[in-house]
Amino acid sequence: MRTALILAAGLFAAPAAAGVPEALDQHILPGFDRFVQETGALARTAEEDCTAGTVAPAYHAAFDTWMPLAEVKIGPSDTGALSVLFWPDDRGFTPKALNGLIADADPVVTQPEDYAEVSIAARGLMALDMLLFDPAYDSADPYTCQLVTAVAVDLARQAETLQAAWADEFAAALRSAGAAENATFLSPQEAMRALYTQVLSGLEFTADQRLGRPLGTFERPRPRRAEAWRSERSLRNVLLAADAAQSLAHALAETDLPLTDAAMVSVREAAAKVNDPGFQDIDDPQARLQVEVLAQEVRSLRTAIANEVGAPLGIAPGFNSSDGD
Amino acid sequence: MTTRRGFLAGLLAAGSAPAIGWADAGSPSYLAAAREADGAFALFGLDTGGNLTFRVPMPARGHAGAGHPARPLAVAFARRPGAFALVIDCADGLVRQRLTPPAGQSFNGHGSFSADGTRLYTVEQRDEDSAGVIGLWAMERELTRIGEVPSRGIGPHDLRLMPDGGLVVANGGIATGADGREKTNLGEMQPNLTYLDAEGRVQDQVILDPDLAQCSIRHLAVAPDGQVGFAMQWEGAPGTPVPLLGLHLRGEAPVLADPPLAEALAMWGYAGSIALSGDGRSYSISSPRGGRVQRFGRNGAFLGSVARADVCGLAAHPGGCLATDGLGGLLLLEGDRVRPLGSAPVAWDNHIVAL
């Protein structure tokens, strides 16, 4: 009985699944290069002039280069993404952590390498969103100025670390999926599945969190729970996240994706009807409706990608992750 | 465990009839349920090298199981709400007996034999109000229900033997509706950890602070000194960093593990399985939702983590910790190092049962 049932390690040993190299070379790795470039520019800008008005454009440019990567939360990014973009934060960890640093005039800001040791809630883009755009913080204040610079420099360092970890190690693990020495991906299909599930879970996150959190309930909308509402990026982030999903879906698929592309057009049309880029007007029923429609279109995009990319590959939701017990 | 089994097998062998033991089932060290490529369900025996030693078909999705300490018998429990448990002869693959809970009750997925193999404990709940029950079964030629005791909580899930022969029960605190899985009391949960003696009398009960009332205590691992590791699932607002591992030694206050914030969030508020490492020095908890296994010291200190999609099943292994996932992977976790033992065209289910 035993002999017939020996498990074969590397049962599926084969070249990398089509789509994985494309996703890396067309989307992810160039994305990290751009992210390194723009966060570097942000750090240099802040070091020269840390006032909010000067830093803001560089902040937006850096944020724009993160969004195509934000939902690929595997490998170096599986916890690394959180210290780049710490959100959602219903409990207000970010203001608590920043206020603590400011109240103590914590000297941690003087050494950029030390700043990596502070709470992840005080690092990254959401810390800048608050420091640069919330009236409670004054970037003209000398300590706050130092803090802005420290966050920006730390972010640039995070970008370099992530870029290197992806380019040097994790990309190789994805490409060599199924090889005997590969302990991360036991088959090419696993690498494909890993990237594909990021696309789906990313769109779910966009619909349920980026849009669902501020929507709250009809009786109680929660505009302050929108992502990066202070810098009025909430809507832009939704669009960039949807763009990223479409781009990755195309890289992963071997066929045209007409349903996906049509769904993305609908996402853009729905986004064009949203007035407030920070969703701060959604206690108005008409404004709320537009955001609800947008959330629906994002879910439709997810369904289209599941049908056009996932179904042909036979990728189903996780047996255990979707069970719950 | 091998020692105890060998000892009991020896005792049986010294008796009159030639006894059938686990060696006749290929000497598995573990049991694990899975869904196969064609959608059918089965229970597998596994050895420490990750080799399959037997395969027995199951009529529906399994959850966990219990192996008899001496005879090659496994009780495979159905997925919650369980209408049946199968007593499977792992030597010949035949179903020896089909257990059903009393009318109006359901099996909850876990159970255990007593150390001497004379008794089976099954975790159950009343369908009407989710009140927890531990079913008591005597093991002679076959299993006979001899009684039941309250589990002292709502929605119990896992149960383990204590070194003193008593039991520890994870009363998850979640009441379920008519379909047996819909959660109906998330705003008023009161999970607890309850210690019972072998006859079901309460010895001790642990309740966490009220702000953790929505942390459902669901799975257990017991160290040889009686320290209980309990893994939890958060039913409150998503994105809240909460402890998912607690440690308790009777007579002392529970200790809650406190990983770094990014690690806490990476588990998505969900631990699906827990196991003590082979050397007894650390606990691992798995999150299929976060695709992650975290490791903590016996004092609750965070030691490290490993990423693996849809990972859930965990069990002690001489080299560290054995892990299974929904993609068919069988992995040996040696600290933070992952050593694949094999990959099968099956989706391994939530748990691995160590024999």
Automatic annotation (TrEMBL), chain A:
Has the keyword Cytoplasm been applied to this entry? Answer: no
Stored Pfam families? Peptidase_M75
List, for all copies, the residue spans of the domain called Imelysin-like: 28-303
Top-level taxon of the source organism? Bacteria
User: Where is this chain's protein located in or outside the cell?
Assistant: Cell envelope
Q: Which GO terms describe its cellular component?
A: cell envelope
Q: Which CDD domains match?
A: Imelysin-like_IPPA
Q: Which UniProt keywords apply?
A: Signal
Q: Residues of the signal sequence?
A: 1-18
Annotated Gene3D superfamilies: M75 peptidase, HXXE motif
Q: Has keyword Signal? A: yes
Major location category of this protein: other
- The entry's protein name is Signal peptidase
Origin species: Thalassococcus profundi
TrEMBL record, chain B:
Signal sequence range: 1-19
Question: What's in the keyword line of the UniProt record?
Answer: Signal
InterPro entries referenced in this protein's UniProt entry, alphabetically: Quino_amine_DH_bsu (IPR011044), TAT_signal (IPR006311), UCP028101 (IPR008311), WD40/YVTN_repeat-like_dom_sf (IPR015943)
Q: Tell me the superkingdom of the source.
A: Bacteria
Give any Pfam family that matches: DUF1513
Q: Which organism is it from?
A: Thalassococcus profundi
Highest lineage ranks of the organism?
A: Bacteria, Pseudomonadati, Pseudomonadota, Alphaproteobacteria, Rhodobacterales
Is Signal one of the keywords UniProt gives this record? Answer: yes
The record ties this protein, via SUPFAM superfamilies, to: YVTN repeat-like/Quinoprotein amine dehydrogenase
Q: What name goes with this protein?
A: DUF1513 domain-containing protein
